[in-house]
């Protein structure tokens, strides 16, 4: 039974609203994770090609923040954090933006979690303390969830630039509203952003072909621009717009990091106690600019059939008995504050045996395995175990469970691998997931895992 | 086949395409020596035949047109062209040219825009931690890291600075063969019964839309969704224009008076010819004689789209052919010859 309560000043409330508005552009549910020193909201979109996370620091963002997870509730495999998910729309209807009401404007917001094992309903209680003694109370039902974090290794970044979001918004303003994709490259002191749509049209429908718009701006407009010239990297325009719209509202300079096409790109910015990270999958010609030497790991990755997570899991469990061949810093995108430090410098709290045959250059997905970005199919969900089934993190979670239960921990720690803090999961009875896929998962979870 | 021109008046061009795009998706754009024509012939609704002298939208000196027939006929998605032109409105220079990408002919609009930075990133703060992101790259990636830093610039900017943006909009078009358009002719109509200069299109549009809305609301929803209400527009040769709508539930009308019935150019028609015109017979009737009014019934929604041309603040002469058609001659303001730059709208009258 976790205890979580925090309160927010009006300004923070508006920021929370802005964050939720931004997250809502990625998917309709948001995962909320509470830790001792932070609250994290994250969204993974339905096609699993985009991940957005906002981390609110306990000290910097909240008026007060308290989180406690009693020892007795930390069973094996259950990390010291609380996770749940909610419909963003439900939250948005509670956390409204600036309103015109003067007298009864919100003065303070208090949020408290009601989680009791003996109660049938678990709720998030939100109290808006307004002027003139008006108090608005909301109770939101949350769902248990397993949080997936996209993983992005900043140390492997080979291309990086930083710019005021205003300039990016001016660029996207020129794009046709129906444009779907965005190609970014640089050439001779210019950075070129091209919007396009990969729509199949037959020859007669030339006029229905989408307009290509390309906007070239000077590299001088960037705070700094460190990227390989003529490296085309393609992302989804809608996601990009969602990020820059929020960054512009927050008035924060965006930093963009990536390696090469088909590897994830991360957009990040921090402001006043809030850290944001957006990890977007990229497309493009993966092999175009890569020296031959670096292709070897990809080839081996291709040899490992990874259409379904079954095979991936097997690979992972097999390799887990092998001595880890190398130590790599593998960090979760939104690890706990200082996760990077913990991830790279300690190895005691959890372990992740790196699969020998798959090198995670960027770790968001195993190299070149595009299918992992596909919509998960239902067969996969039939596996009678918690399956995350979308990226490396998924395997890690499975491993974490075993690790905590058995001998793998010892074995792995002997080899001092770099570790990933486990993705968390929290279950509450009677909080039914809403999507069919999730429901299936839930059935298994309730049957096999969830005993309090 | 070659076409290239600098835009001289992107704002006008943008407004023109906006007005045209409300009536149809595909526009026949005919580039000739000295004249550019835009024609929209929708399956249903109002036709527009517009002709503009080249210098109304392009810089005449930069207008290059090369073709065997001396004419280039294009089918242009007018909405896309309009959206593209919006980028050019505030630009320092913009060029439109016909080009090709693969097998797809394109109208490529290249826009140079410049603006001033506010100097907000002028603090000169360089984050050394960010400046060497490739420093930690090891082993196999070392080679790539070297390439990655092809361009780097410390963020030391002082004060506002001019920044230039180059925007390229590529609009796919279709080049029409002469045979494809030889069957297209501007409609021919008999001489109008009444010709009158319309009042402010903005006012006319607002009132028309209000009437249309009232009529739609008063009808049953099932009927309203399929048939849009018909406006009755009528005018006489004594400076009066009447806008009316009638349904089972209501009957409303607005009347403008003291409008101008423009005189006809004696250089074009002899006095004898003018006297033979139906409009002169209508003028002879007294201003309170109902027979002196020429009336047309037009679709309310379509009329609203036609009136969107008001954004160009033109002078509009409406020609009424009683119970047959309404023809609008829309003359654009500006220094160019009004006779040359004219948009002609052909609106059919619905039967009562």
Automatic annotation (TrEMBL), chain A:
Keywords: DNA damage. It holds the Pfam family Rad9. One of its GO terms (cellular component) is checkpoint clamp complex. InterPro entries: DNA_clamp_sf, Rad9, Rad9/Ddc1. SUPFAM superfamilies: DNA clamp. It comes from the Eukaryota. GO terms for biological process: cellular response to ionizing radiation; DNA repair; DNA replication checkpoint signaling; mitotic intra-S DNA damage checkpoint signaling. Residues 311-321 have a biased composition (Polar residues). Residues 376-385 have a biased composition (Acidic residues). Residues 285-360, 368-387 are annotated as: Disordered. Acts in DNA repair and mutagenesis. Involved in promoting resistance to ionizing radiation and UV light, as well as regulating cell cycle progression after irradiation. Belongs to the rad9 family. This is DNA repair protein rad9. The lineage of its organism: Eukaryota, Fungi, Dikarya, Ascomycota, Pezizomycotina.
UniProtKB/TrEMBL annotation, chain B:
GO terms for biological process: double-strand break repair via homologous recombination; meiotic DNA integrity checkpoint signaling; mitotic DNA replication checkpoint signaling; mitotic intra-S DNA damage checkpoint signaling; nucleotide-excision repair; telomere maintenance. Residues 124-163 are annotated as: Disordered. InterPro entries: HUS1, HUS1/Mec3. Its main location: nucleus. GO terms for cellular component: checkpoint clamp complex; nucleolus; site of double-strand break. Residues 124-135 have a biased composition (Polar residues). It is found in: Nucleus. It holds the Pfam family Hus1. Transmembrane segments: none annotated. Signal peptide: none annotated. Keywords: Nucleus. Belongs to the HUS1 family. This is Checkpoint protein. The lineage of its organism: Eukaryota, Fungi, Dikarya, Ascomycota, Pezizomycotina.
């Amino acid at each position: 039974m976790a205890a979580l309560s925090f309160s927010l000043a009006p300004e923070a409330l508006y920021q929370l609203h802005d964050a939720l508005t931004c997250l809502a552009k990625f998917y309709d549910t948001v995962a909320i994770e509470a830790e001792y020193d932070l609250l994290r909201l994250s969204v993974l979109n339905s096609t699993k090609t985009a991940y957005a996370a906002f981390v609110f620091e306990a000290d910097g963002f909240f008026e007060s923040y308290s989180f406690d997870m009693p020892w007795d509730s930390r069973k094996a495999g259950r990390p010291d954090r609380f996770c749940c998910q909610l419909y963003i729309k439900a939250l948005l209807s509670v956390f409204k933006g600036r309103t015109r009401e003067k007298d009864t404007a919100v003065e303070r917001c208090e949020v408290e979690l009601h989680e009791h094992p003996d109660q049938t309903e678990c709720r998030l209680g939100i109290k808006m303390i307004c002027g003139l003694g008006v108090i608005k109370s909301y109770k939101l039902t949350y769902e248990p969830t397993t949080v997936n974090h996209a993983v992005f290794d900043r140390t492997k970044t080979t291309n990086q630039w930083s710019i005021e979001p205003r300039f990016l918004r001016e660029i996207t303003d020129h794009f046709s509203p129906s444009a779907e994709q965005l190609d970014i490259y640089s050439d001779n002191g210019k950075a070129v952003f091209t919007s396009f749509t990969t729509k199949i049209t037959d020859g007669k429908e030339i006029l229905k072909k989408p307009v290509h718009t390309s906007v070239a701006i000077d590299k001088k407009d960037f705070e700094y621009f460190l990227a390989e010239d003529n490296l085309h990297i393609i992302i989804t325009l809608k996601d990009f717009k969602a990020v820059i719209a929020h960054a512009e509202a927050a008035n924060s300079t965006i930093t963009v990091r990536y390696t090469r096409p088909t590897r994830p790109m991360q957009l990040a910015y921090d402001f006043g106690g809030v850290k944001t990270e957006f990890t977007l999958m990229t497309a493009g010609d993966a092999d175009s600019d890569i020296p031959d030497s670096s292709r070897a790991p990809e080839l081996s990755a291709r040899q490992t059939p990874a259409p379904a997570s079954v095979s991936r899991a097997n690979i992972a469990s097999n390799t887990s008995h092998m001595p880890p061949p190398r130590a790599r810093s593998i960090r979760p995108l939104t690890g706990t504050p200082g996760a990077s430090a913990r991830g790279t410098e300690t190895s005691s709290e959890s372990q992740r045996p790196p699969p020998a045959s798959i090198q995670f250059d960027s770790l968001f997905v195993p190299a070149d395995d595009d299918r992992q970005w596909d919509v998960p199919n239902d067969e996969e969900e039939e596996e009678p175990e918690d399956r995350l089934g979308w990226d490396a993190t998924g395997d890690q979670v499975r491993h974490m469970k075993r690790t905590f239960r058995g001998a793998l921990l010892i074995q792995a720690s002997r080899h001092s691998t770099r570790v990933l803090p486990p993705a968390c999961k929290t279950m509450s009875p009677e909080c039914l997931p809403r999507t069919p896929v999730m429901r299936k998962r839930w059935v298994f979870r309730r049957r096999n895992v969830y005993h309090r | 086949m070659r076409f290239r021109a600098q835009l001289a008046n992107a704002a006008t061009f943008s407004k023109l395409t906006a007005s045209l795009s409300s009536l149809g998706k595909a526009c026949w754009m005919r580039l000739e020596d000295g004249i550019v024509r835009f024609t929209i012939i929708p399956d249903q609704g109002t036709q527009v035949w517009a002709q503009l002298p080249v210098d109304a939208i392009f810089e005449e000196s930069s207008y290059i047109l090369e073709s065997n027939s001396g004419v280039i006929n294009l089918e242009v998605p007018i909405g896309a062209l309009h959206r593209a032109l919006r980028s050019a409105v505030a630009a320092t220079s913009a060029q439109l040219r016909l080009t090709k990408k693969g097998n797809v002919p394109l109208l490529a609009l290249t826009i140079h825009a410049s603006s001033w930075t506010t100097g907000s990133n002028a603090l000169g703060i360089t984050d050394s931690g960010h400046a060497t992101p490739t420093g930690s790259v090891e082993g196999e990636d070392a080679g790539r890291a070297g390439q990655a830093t092809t361009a780097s610039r410390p963020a030391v900017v002082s004060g506002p600075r001019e920044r230039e943006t180059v925007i390229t909009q590529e609009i796919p078009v279709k080049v029409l063969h002469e045979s494809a358009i030889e069957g297209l002719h501007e409609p021919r109509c008999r001489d109008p019964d009444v010709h009158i200069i319309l009042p402010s299109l903005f006012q006319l549009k607002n009132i028309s839309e209000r009437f249309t809305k009232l009529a739609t609301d008063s009808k049953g929803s099932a009927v309203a969704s399929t048939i849009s209400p018909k406006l009755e527009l009528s005018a006489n040769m004594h400076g009066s224009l009447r806008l009316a709508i009638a349904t089972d539930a209501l009957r409303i009308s607005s009347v403008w008076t003291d409008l101008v019935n423009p005189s006809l150019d004696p250089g074009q028609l002899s006095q004898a010819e003018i006297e033979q015109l139906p409009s002169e017979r209508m003028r002879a009737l007294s201003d309170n004689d109902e027979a002196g009014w020429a009336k047309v019934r037009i679709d309310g929604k379509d009329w609203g789209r036609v009136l969107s041309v008001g954004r160009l603040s033109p002078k509009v002469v409406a020609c009424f052919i009683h119970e047959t058609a309404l023809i609008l001659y829309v003359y654009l303001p500006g220094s160019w010859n009004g006779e040359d730059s004219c948009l002609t709208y052909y609106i059919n009258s619905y039967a009562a």
